[in-house]
Design a protein that fits this description.
- The protein is an alpha+beta fold.
- It has one domain: PH-domain like, CATH 2.30.29.
- 23% of the residues lie in helices and 34% in strands.
- A 7-stranded mixed β-sheet has the order 4-5-6-3-2-1-7.
- InterPro entries: YegP-like_sf.
């Protein structure tokens, strides 16, 4: 089972990541000015997972990654993978789990541990 995690960047923009069941990032979405835009894109992505297109690339240092395209718009970029097999496993995980992935919102930036004495 995968999980979408919404966080706030230091520049004030929001982003989401799809994490694998082992909590490793699979891909990261674009920046959004407002949190609800991030939530809307996640829901849109979940409803249209069958329309996703995965463009595969190889970086200059030999690592593999993919870009996620939905209705002719790039919506996310994957992490770097060391082999094509791992890249394909990442794509398979997206196709299998995106529609049922839960959404966790860590963008409020509350101190979950509280103050230490």
């Amino acid at each position: 089972m995968a999980t979408f995690v919404i966080t706030k960047r230091l520049n004030g923009f929001y982003k989401y990541e799809l994490l694998s069941r082992k909590a490793k990032p699979i891909f990261t979405g674009n920046d959004f000015e407002l949190r609800f835009e991030c939530e809307e894109e996640i829901e849109y992505l979940k409803r249209h997972v069958e329309d996703l297109v995965f463009l595969r690339f190889r970086s200059g240092n030999g690592k593999f990654f993919f870009r996620v395209i939905l209705h002719e718009k790039e919506i996310a970029k994957s992490r770097k993978y060391t082999t094509q097999l791992l890249l394909q496993k990442g794509i398979n995980e997206v196709q299998k789990y995106v529609s049922t992935a839960e959404v966790l919102d860590f963008s409020l930036n509350n101190d979950i541990f509280g103050e230490t004495a």
